[in-house]
Amino acid sequence: MSKAVYPGSFDPTTNGHIDIIKRASGFVDTLVVAVLENPSKNPLFSVEERVEHIKMLTGDLENVCVMPFSGLLADFVKKINANFVIRGVRTITDFEYEFQMALTNRSLNKNMETLFIPTSTQVLYLSSSVVKEVAMFGGDISDMVPEKLKNIIVEKFESCAE
């Protein structure tokens, strides 16, 4: 039985993230979307909110589960007995960073492999940072995030402005 982990902060979840989740879920028995709780970052949404968002967006994918995690990814992968990690890459810069992280994780967990999935061209430009910046200034994020999440993001920025 193959189990993969797709880790990230998902703050917020973009169409690019959903693209990778859907594609990766097609070639594993179980895909664990691991939502990082990173105390050094100042996220727009709490880890609990981000977990709920992904659950809402992936409810139709029976082999996808969503879990929060903190600490080292290598430890989390070992703890849940996963076979490998999925990483989406958009650019050469992404690949360089992710390749370094894959080697580091492999040095911490000898049984851990990383698979890189190139992002689909229609969402190549997307990042959570881009979505937040566009939304913060009132721009249209309709093509950047799933419809179910769009209003949640817009409302979050409106409540922050009050």
Structural description of this entry:
The protein has helices at residues 15-25, 47-57, 73-79, 92-108, 128-136, 147-161, and strands at residues 3-8, 30-36, 64-69, 84-89, 113-118. It has 6 helices and 5 strands. The chain has a 5-stranded parallel beta sheet, sandwiched between helices. It has one domain (3-124): Rossmann fold. The relative contact order is 0.19. By secondary structure, the protein is an alpha/beta fold. The mean pLDDT is 93. It is globular, with a radius of gyration of 16 Å. Strand 4, helix 4 and strand 5 form a beta-alpha-beta unit. The longest helix is centred in the middle third of the chain and has 17 residues, at 92-108.
CATH superfamily: HUPs
Give the class from helix and strand content and strand pairing. Answer: alpha/beta
Instruction: Classify the fold: give the CATH topology.
Output: Rossmann fold
Per CATH, which architecture? 3-Layer(aba) Sandwich
Strands of the largest sheet, in order across it? 3-2-1-4-5
Beta-strand proportion = 15-25%
Highest-level CATH class: Alpha Beta
Q: What is the succession of H and E elements? A: EHEHEHEHEHH
Number of domains: 1
